[in-house]
């Protein structure tokens, strides 16, 4: 949720160019999840691996690992953006369709859930940042 929301806020959407994964990870840990960068990047990578999720929520350029268990390249070498289906998870979020709460340092707010127009939990499973 936080990764997708942060990418949407920064305009890193499917119709635009790819951006460095490290930039997104920095935005997420700086604004919404003040913990280790590796857990955020690993969650981003998982959402980009078509052998782990049915519908990829993030498109990634560069080495994002392999089905054989090879690790992904470091975040400074990969680029990412939201996939087109992610737009369906975030559509109308600015129209107060879901509740928002203050972020960890009260400098902005984040959604408690996404307004999802498709059942992401059923489609892709439940593994997230804490996986």
Describe the structure.
This protein is α+β, with helices and mostly antiparallel strands. It has one domain: Topoisomerase II, domain 5 (Alpha-Beta Complex). 30% of the residues lie in helices and 12% in strands. The chain contains five helices and five strands. A three-stranded antiparallel sheet has the order 1-3-2. Strands 4-5 form a two-stranded antiparallel ribbon. Strand 4 and strand 5 form a beta hairpin. Helix 1 crosses helix 2. 27% of the residues are buried.
What are the key terms here?
alpha+beta, single chain, two-stranded antiparallel sheet, three-stranded antiparallel beta sheet, 131 residues, Topoisomerase II, domain 5
Give the secondary structure arrangement, pairings included.
Layout: H1 2-9, E1 19-20, H2 21-31, H3 37-46, E2 58-61, E3 79-82, H4 86-90, E4 100-102, E5 109-111, H5 120-124
Antiparallel strand pairs: 1-3, 2-3, 4-5
Helix pairs in contact: 1-2, 2-3
Strand order of the largest sheet: 1-3-2
Distance between the termini: 14 Å
Structural domain tally: 1
Structural class: alpha+beta
The helical percent reads 25-40%
Average of pLDDT = 92
| Secondary structure tally, helices | 5
* Unreliable residue runs: none
Name of the top-level CATH class: Alpha Beta
Short summary:
The protein is of the alpha+beta class and 131 residues long.
